[in-house]
Amino acid sequence: MDRRRILLVAAAVVATLGTLLVFLYVRGADARAAEQYDTVDVLRAVAVISPGETIEAASAGGKLALQPVPKDQLLGGYQTSTESLTGLVALTAIYPGEQIIASKFGGQAEAASPLQIPKGEMAISVNLTDPARVAGFVNPGSQVSVFLNGSDATSGQAFTRMLLPRVTVLGVGSTTPVSTTTTDQTGAQTTEQLPRTLLTLALDQQDAQKVLFASGNGELAFALLTTDSAVKPGPGVTALNLFR
User: Does domain 39-107 have CATH number 3.40.50.2300?
Assistant: First the structure.
């Protein structure tokens, strides 16, 4: 009888604990739901705010509005007024719906560049004739191999050799006519007007130095590549191995 009574008491305790745990869970869920829908009125953009635009100009232009945002969606540095941003400008473009946060405003706008330069690389430009730029088929985004037509500093032997196997073209600039004078084997000189075009490449420091040095000590030429083009550096071609 005593054992049966103990079991009944234990069952009652377990049932009570279960009921208490369910109650606490429901209360917690209700609290979380209430917190989710608890909002704060913060400044949000209702029109595009351009880089360099002052917070005062954006406000005067009707580009800001106080709007409710759930507490669990607030961003760090959110603003409820423009007071702390007085005199500052947008560092980047801010689009409709974005919260106004302190980190997107500062003393001066970030200089925008039309070139999409890959991280860790730099942009340099070279001036090429139409044949050297594949008759105008090289465009921004093209992949090219860079070749050098030059001569050996010691022997004076002319050569053609791949300088860089694969390079990205960032931009194609203006074309201008340039006078070019060539001398044939008899010593006769011919001057002609050849159009030259500026092409801008994305390179790391070492490759940029190679291209700049080569363009000042020889003639560069591009070869337009596809994803299937097979390219690799090699010893190049001279008069000694041209027909081998």
Answer: no
